[in-house]
Specification:
The protein is of the alpha+beta class and about 150 residues long. Helix content is about 40%, strand content about 15%. It is built from 5 helices and 4 strands; from the N terminus they run αααβββαβα. A hairpin with a 4-residue loop joins β2 and β3. The longest helix is centred in the last third of the chain and has 16 residues. The model has no long low-confidence stretch (mean pLDDT about 85). This is DUF559 domain-containing protein.
């Protein structure tokens, strides 16, 4: 596996294609992302003026006990955004564990936003609105630096 600097070096040495698409892709990539859907959601939020979230961030409660790993975390505002593909929806025990996890995230003081498939329709406007509303409730205002987590 190559890190971002190694990829940038390779692009510089070998050349880019179609107006810098490789360089742009390296700049947009984040290490540790677990799925293409998470990446699409992160880029959707960023393209719509929201701050840059931390990917796969750990949440701890007030005693320092691990609560959950979050797809996209806006730690400064304690807003957790997750792509919820509902892959476990048919498994009753897994769904119960998920529901307990969601409650634990909220109990740790975080606003938990679950983005479902239907929120990504129409260009993702509903998903952006959910995340934006949670950030505004937490004190973020449009125009603040988009690169502050």
């Amino acid at each position: 596996m190559a890190d971002a600097e190694q990829l940038r070096s390779e692009v510089s040495e070998m050349g880019d294609v179609r107006g810098g698409v490789l360089r742009t892709a390296v700049d947009l990539a984040r290490p540790g992302v677990r799925s293409p859907r998470e990446t699409r959601l992160r880029l959707l939020l960023a393209r719509n003026g929201l701050p840059t979230p931390e990917v796969n961030a750990d949440i701890f409660d007030s005693r320092g006990v691990f609560v959950a790993e979050i797809d996209l975390a806006f730690a400064r505002w304690m807003v957790a955004v997750e792509d919820d593909g509902r892959v476990h929806a048919e498994d009753e025990r897994q769904f119960a564990r998920d529901a307990d996890r969601w409650a634990a995230i909220r109990a740790a003081g975080w606003d938990h936003v679950r983005v479902l498939k239907h929120h990504l329709r129409d260009g993702g406007a509903p998903a952006v609105a959910l995340a934006r509303d949670a950030l505004v409730r937490a004190g973020w205002r449009p125009g603040l630096s988009a690169h502050v987590c």
